[in-house]
Hints:
This protein is α/β, with parallel strands linked by helices and 143 residues long. It has 1 helix and 8 strands. A 6-stranded mixed β-sheet has the order 2-3-1-5-8-6, with helices on one face. Strands 4-7 form a two-stranded parallel sheet. The longest helix is centred in the middle third of the chain and has 19 residues, at 79-97. The radius of gyration is 14 Å and the shape is globular. The N and C termini lie far apart (32 Å).
Amino acid sequence: MCYTVYLSTNSPEDLTNQNTELVTFEKYNDEESEPVTKLLGNPNKWYVGSRAGCSCTFRHLTSYDLGFGEPVDWYKEGQDDINATLNLYDVIHLLVSAGYEVDLIDKWEGANPKSFKLLEVSLKKVPPKAFRLYENHRFIINK
């Protein structure tokens, strides 16, 4: 499996300053090599990596059918995956709390950009432990 996560914002902040062992941000400029990034709505685009180098070790589901939810015993998730997603949430929360726009894409390898679904997310309604990513979705995130 291979997920790729991209984030865009109108914040001029260098997000590499937010890098940890579990989540990394790398400036992304080449929309031609990854057409799905044209769906992003803000000028500053970032590739979001995880401890695996790719974006696979975040909390992911294939669809939004189950909604947001905290980890449960019957669906095993690694603690590092949970912590990486919490770190990502913290960076997103920092940006939107400062008044910046944020959207992100969670892409499954080979997905067609035309198949992406739009999901508006209010961080007031989705607590950190419940946040997760959905395959082939574009998230528009606000307070």
